Amino acid sequence: MADTLRMIIAVMGNVASVSLYAAPTVTFKRVIRKKSTEEFSCIPYIIALLNCLLFTWYGLPVISYNWENFPLVTVNGVGIAFELSYVLIYFWFSSPKGKVKVAMIGVPVLMVFFVIAIASAFAFPDHNHRKLLVGSIGLAISVAMYASPLVAMKQVIKTKSVEFMPLPLSLCSLLTCILWLTYGILIRDIFVAGPSVVGTPLSILQLVLHCKYWKRKVMEEPNKVEFQKENVEKMDLEIGNMEKNVTLSSNYNS
């Protein structure tokens, strides 16, 4: 019964996590359409990529006992594909300065992962020490990943708009945290449950900001339309006056 429950939670956690990884596709469709990264930050996606790499490695038999953490391998393997795609798209459409920023953050991150992977595979003789090393670093990176939306939340508070913090991402984040927290408790693995202890309240905070600022964009749109309408009316009036003056001038000359 306990094994069945763990499996159900693991499957649900996988589905929720894949949804979380897929949520930014809305953002990157906009980036591709506008050919600009606008005010979006690359940091959350690079941190998420490192997190996926570490927990995929953590779940493999090199670190864990056999395939005891197989659900981590499947979901984080999918996450690697998503996050790497986001980073590459961001790099392609960012400004020259933005490209330098991505490279300066992304290359050291990949180097850190390779150093950890090599050290854990060859420097430690048993699984316990390997899990402790990779799990501890993965836990710290996961906390950073769940804390990275603080950048977006700061932008939301500054602009009073949730435009750059998509709601699907916040909802998926909360659901994923709850499921993996439950799964980590069931298998008694602090390295699996730990990140969600931080991620859950941060995800709730994102939803609070959505509730507070979601009307802002809706309220601004009518004002924008009204402003454009006034400009059009002014232009029409000015054109009408110009045509009237030209006509009067023509009559006077004739």
From TrEMBL:
Keywords: Membrane, Repeat, Sugar transport, Transmembrane, Transmembrane helix, Transport. One of its GO terms (cellular component) is endomembrane system. The keyword Transcription regulation does not apply. The keyword Disulfide bond does not apply. Pfam families: MtN3_slv. GO terms for molecular function: sugar transmembrane transporter activity. Belongs to the SWEET sugar transporter family. Mediates both low-affinity uptake and efflux of sugar across the membrane. This is Bidirectional sugar transporter SWEET. It comes from Clitoria ternatea (Butterfly pea).
